[in-house]
Amino acid sequence: MDLAKRKYNFIRALTTVDETILSKLEKVLNANQQENDWYLNLSNEEKKELEVGVQQANDDEVISHEEVMKKFSKWH
After folding, report:
1. Residue from 25, 5, 7 nearest 17 by CA
2. How far apart are CA 45 and CA 55, in angstroms?
3. CA nearest neighbour of 23 among 14, 12, 11, 34
4. Residue 42: phi, psi to the nearest 5?
5. How far is it, in rounded angstroms, from Cα 60 to Cα 64?
6. What is the pLDDT of residues 25-71, one digit of tens each?
7. CB–CB of 35/27 below 8 Å?
8. Which of 16, 30, 34, 47 has the fewest CB atoms found within 10 Å of its own CB?
9. CA–CA distance, 33 with 41 (Å, rounded to integer)
């Protein structure tokens, strides 16, 4: 059975579930969403550091991987 058909069958089945099952399904969906959104699990400090990095990349303040590897090749 293809994904679209499975989803359709699932949606049809949802119309018949009781409150208990619906609550459990909502918890599963919410937990899955939070796990996939790793950004939400970062501290404010980590988020600020990411924003700085994005801004540096936007301002073309980057060093290529090759340059970094040349600089630190003595430790490799």
Report:
1. 25
2. 15
3. 14
4. -85, 155
5. 11
6. 988 888 766 666 788 788 999 999 999 999 999 999 999 999 999 98
7. no
8. 16
9. 12
